[in-house]
Amino acid sequence: MITQKEAQDILQSMTKGDSLLRHARTVELVMRAYAEKLGQHVEQWGATGLLHDADYEAHPDQHPNVIVNLLRERGEEEMAHAISAHYTKWGVSYDTLLDKALLACDELTGFIVACAQVRPARLEGLEVKSVVKKLGQKSFAASVDREEVRIGAELFEVDMKEHIGFIIQVLQQHQDELQLQPQVTQS
């Protein structure tokens, strides 16, 4: 099993941008929390979340094949398969709870971070209904594929509002680390 340190080293060898590193960390945190909640392997789920976009910056035309192949070479087939399936349009099957969880958490976690970043209080006080409303605004975070969000929740068999609330709660617990704490106004 790949360790947290090994996963972090792999990520940092291919990813330098703060935004993508933060996205990887947020998905890792949410995946770990879901693994704990569902009685799954916390380290495996966390590493899968951390590494799902590891090759995106360095190898955008080959994403996710570089990280998938690296994980397969290391004998991490479950992680590799989940990462190869984290976008429905790639046509990969969703065979395990890990596959479904990554799909359900990736795009929506990024969207929730985008919602937090436009608020002075960031994650503090962010409500599920606000996120749902923003999901309906196609111009907000337009690159987020709302259909992926919907299909992810459906395959993972979670209620969308409960899912959003769970992700917000996880991110709130780590808002200082993620630099998503409220903005301090100067007087």
TrEMBL record:
Residues 21-102 form the HD domain. Signal peptide: none annotated. Pfam families: HD. This is HD domain-containing protein. It comes from Pontibacter rugosus.
